[in-house]
Predict the structure.
Amino acid sequence: MSRPMIAIAIGNTRTRVGIMSGTECLKAQSVRSDDSPAIVDEVRSLWRDYGDGASDPVVVLSSVNHQRASEIARSIDKAGFSSVYLFGPDLPIPIRHTLTESGEKTVGQDRLLCAIGAYRVVSQACIVVDLGTAITVDFVDGEGVFHGGAILPGVGMMFEALHEKTAHLPKLKYEKPESNDLSPAKQTDLAMQLGVNACVHGAIRWLAERYAEFYEGYPQIIVTGGDMGVLEGDELIEAFVPDLQLHGIRAACLMLADADVSDEEL
């Protein structure tokens, strides 16, 4: 684990491929999750440009779609990379939690790995917000224990629902409202922008207050994900961490490498 490694976070729509060294992400690229050849090309390119010269890097994948992850892993293996590992079939995710039995079976790897990455960053209780296809708002206590959280529609999904489930609302992409304009929106597109923005900011504030009351202390809020810019300028946010899941993959691998193989907590 002292060597650089390739970390791959497979999402519903986009996949991030990054090369990790120590605690740094040297470079990461985004590729469509259904484009296995492009993902393999990124692995080759990143290792050629940032690897340590060895021909066979360690490649570790996490995914919200296990079938797609298996297909991508096979493609990478066929391309000549033999040290390919999947969280789940090959590696456990080393995090303590308070989930129910059903919750443990269904929780997304992305949520657990982002929690590991965030706790490694702040080493204290934190709220982890991931703005992707869906938005997750999870709580990790001061001992690094994952307590679960909330899932709500992502920004793009909100706009898509407004357009597809109504007769006349337009199809839009997110644009940040003017921060110094506090007036109600005067036209339909701006009203939609304001509404989606309010949903994201309002939900996170409400959940943060709820988690703080549960914990009897106010945790730091760490934000990641492709749409994390939506929260830019919000005074509640302590840190924006791009590619938090890739950092979580690296941190989880280091934890597994350091762990006693008999450690029942893993």
